[in-house]
Amino acid sequence: MSNAVDYGYNESLEIGHSNASVFVDKINKRLRLTGYSGDLNEIAPALAEMAQQLALGKVIIFAPQQDSADLESSGYGCEGKITAYFRGETAYVYTLFTDLRRKQSGYRQQEAELLNTIKHSQPAARNSDLGDLQIRTAGEEDIEKLLQLYSRTFKSYPSPLMEKAYMQQIMRRNVVFICAFNGNQPVSSASLEMDLENANAELTDCATLSQYRGRGLLQEIMNRLEDRAREIGLVVLYSLARAGSYGMNASLHKLGYNFEGKLVNNCHIGGRYENMNIWVKPL
Fold first, then answer.
1. Considering only CA atoms, which of 274, 275, 264, 279 is closest in space to residue 103?
2. Are residues 230 and 269 in the same domain?
3. Measured at the alpha carbon of residue 251, what is the angle toward residues 247 and 254, in degrees to the nearest 5?
4. Which of 211, 278, 209 is nearest to 249 (CA)?
5. pLDDT > 50? residue 2
6. pLDDT at 123
7. CATH code of the domain covering residue 118
8. Looking at the whole model, is its pTM more than 0.90?
9. How much is the average pLDDT of 23-52?
10. Better-scored residue on pLDDT, 242 or 161
11. Rounded Cα–Cα distance for residues 267 and 108 (Å)
């Protein structure tokens, strides 16, 4: 039984004596395990085979520590972790590349140097320069203008964020957008994608129009999203930042997020596959 959506689909699988739920991600050519019961020694190899058949270059599994040995014996490697992801228990991010070319990255050294610079920097505290801008939660009435903001910011994106129906769907379900507005036009935005079952949320969809950068708008928005997460009772926030982006990684470091790994060629964003740094902040 599958539930089709534009950018991929969820599917339930019976694998031997085990059951698995997966998301087939067409945009990023990934297969992600979203839930399972049974034996990972059955499931993990079957997912690799399924990914190959569907021409998906990467399999991703968020797993508790007790599953590490089973995944490693099936050829998966750990690219990072997210502290407290499972209601306080750490998730280890295991991946397997069915397309070995995707495992290679020519950006590792320069990204490592950038990260080292950020980790050893002590940026001066800076207040956000809001001026006449207003920061508030975005509603469905703002979707059309949000689409304009994101389409002006990204050549490509790992989710169909430039599609109205998708934005309506996620706003009604589990995603909160907070934006800086100039009148009724959003000029900077970020969202909180909440997993209430596991009490975590991903801070994502960060964008600022070029003429408004350097004013600390995203920092203010991210602080307000963190406040919202605390009010809801979430225990951890995490964010995946493009490893070659100084500004986003520096902002997360400044706000107290900890670096916990790098996902190689993980997302198709800005016109190509990019490595993504994992940043985590327990609340």
1. 264
2. yes
3. 140
4. 278
5. no
6. 59
7. 3.40.630.30
8. yes
9. 95
10. 242
11. 15
Domain end among 48, 68, 100: 100
Token representation of residue 228: 């919202």
Distance CA 262, CA 260 (A): 7
| 206-265 tens-digit pLDDT | 999 999 998 999 999 999 999 999 999 999 999 999 999 998 999 999 999 999 999 999
Token code pair at residue 190: 């970020």
C-alpha pair distances (Å), 17 with each of 20, 34, 59, 264:
10, 18, 21, 32
Q: Which of 96-100, 122-126, 245-249 has the lowest mean pLDDT?
A: 122-126
63 and 138 co-located in one domain = no
d(C-alpha 149, C-alpha 142), whole Å:
11
Dist CA 40 CA 106 (whole Å): 32
CA dist 26 and 268 (Å) reads 10
Q: How many domains does the chain have?
A: 2
Q: Please, what's the b/e burial string for 110-149 (b: 16 or more CB within 10 A of its CB; e: otherwise)?
A: ebeebbeebeeeeeeeeebeeeebebeebeeebbebbbeb
* Burial annotation 206-218 (CB, 10 A radius, 16+ → b, else e): bbbbeebeebbbb
The two tokens of residue 125 are 């505290």
Range of the domain at 198: 108-282
Residues 117 and 255 in one domain: yes
Query: Residue 4 above 50 pLDDT?
Result: no
Alpha helices in 4-94 (DSSP H): 40-53, 68-73
Q: Which residues lie across from 172 on neighbouring strands?
A: none
Residues 6 or more apart whose Cβ sits within 8 Å of residue 120: none
CA distances from 178 to 31, 205, 224, 237 (A): 30, 10, 8, 16
